[in-house]
Amino acid sequence: MRQKTALIPTLRSVAEAEMISHQLLLRAGFIRQVAAGVYTYLPLAQRVLNKISTIVREEMDRIGSQELLMPALNPAELWQESGRYDTYGPELVKLQDRHDRRFILGPTHEETITDLVRNAVNTYKKLPMTLYQIQTKFRDEKRPRSGLLRGREFIMKDAYSFHADRESLDEIYQDMYQAYVNIFTRCGLEFGSVEADSGSIGGKGTHEFMVFSEAGEDKIAICTSCDYSANIEMAEIVIDETSSANDETVAPIEKIHTPNIKTIDQLATFLQVGPNALVKTLLFIVDEQPVMVLVRGDHEVNEVKVKNIMEASTCFMADEQTIRNVTGASPGSLGPVNVKEKITILADQALRGFAQWHIGANQDDYHFLHAVEGRDFEVSKYADLRTIEEGDKCPRCGGIIRFQKGVEVGHIFKLGTKYSDAMKGTFLDANGREQMYIMGCYGIGISRTLSAVVEQHHDEGGIIWPEAISPYAVHLIAVNMKDETQRNLAEKLYKDLLHAGVEVLFDDRPERAGVKFKDADLIGIPKRIVVGSKATENLIELKSRRSGESQEVNADQILTLIQK
Ligand code: ATP
Ligand code: MG
Fold first, then answer.
1. Which end of the chain is more exposed for a tag (fewer CB within 10 A), N or C?
2. Number of C-beta neighbours around residue 284 at 10 A
């Protein structure tokens, strides 16, 4: 491609972008924003997306997954059948056609594919079957501010597998796991896989593929001694016995006046104890029911764990008005004693050994001291409800946990019969009996992967593409197009490279050398051929974008060198 007529609108600076990948993709002329979280992929980005997609296709095809393409526009009925029309939340884009029929723009396609397969595949003889697509997804994300890392319209590879039994699901899951390792390795990413929560898709057994990067919104708990890693939403807590008992001498419950004390730190100062001797009470709405959750003062409640313990599909913190309605107090004064309504009270396992609890009195500006579980209130259930912290023990080996930030590029799930149950997806087994499909689903953010690669592969000058997914293999630069010898040699090399099937971007613009080199650094094609003043001696420069190393070579050798 000749750069003179190529659409590569580079910019010296951008104001709006925070993430490095977002900045560089804008500056290097790969993307333009059309609306918040909605982008045009310019020709360079489109080439990278195609290459990532090709790698994905090769790895999917290798494990016997078949490509199809489902629509973005899907009837609401399918989502009503699964129940997700109401539970998916505000990220689901809903719309109506001219006849007032309701539709959604697919954020994922379990419903559509389950509907397809329940009609098209009726016998165990066709199973297992794995289908995938590379397709545009829509999610009305709350914070679409990170460029392609979190779009409201983005490209995903989503695969779905259908099985007659669990063992078959386990096998395909393992194949997918390996395919994902291959895909992200081939894309040049440094990544890890972590145990994860299955979110609104549901089911047990899931891994997220995380690219380690400061740009990540996900926190991963990593053990410093063994290879344990988990999303912090999921990381289990091993009970630390030494921290789980406070003062043994139990006094009668006592209500005390605590004016203007709203936080655990204020209460700790007021009572002159550490926050770890106190109990924090929060109110959550779990599947529309209020649930009180208690953790030690220095711990944080983990919503995902609360949701999972309650076997619920939604869980969020109650707002102030709801808290007042349920408890009669404002958020800083809650506790399990004298709750107005009978509600579920969950307590973190670290509180099990607490002889006496100092807690809010469900009355503004009052707390109880020496409340005793079983005497003054009842806990419905003790469980692991808090979020792991740096310095906690590794649940596997007892080593020390530290955190790392990551970008989730892929996610594999064992769905089980969640969708086949809801949508009556059945087949006939060998005995002619009707059975539910057992399902798995497997996603990769194609556009997010592109961005994640930029997060990991760049320097001050710009992007440095790994060869496998670079928009072009070679950047040919004629330093001075006005110089006839340089121009002629560059034109000849361009033709030779094209003829040899090398993907080449030819900077034939009548620009100054400085501008060309700056743009070339920004765009980040790994190999660069510079045709400059030594063209008179048939000599050119071959330079690596990554190492900056360059060598002078005879122009006649260039094809052999490039193809090597
Ligand atoms: P996140 O927690 O980052 O929102 P998710 O758990 O919602 O991700 P999945 O539903 O598992 O994501 O979707 C499969 C894959 O699609 C993800 O692993 C990710 O790579 C990609 N993806 C999800 N949401 C977005 C988005 N808003 N923009 C770009 N890619 C996305
Ligand atoms: Mg999401």
1. C
2. 23
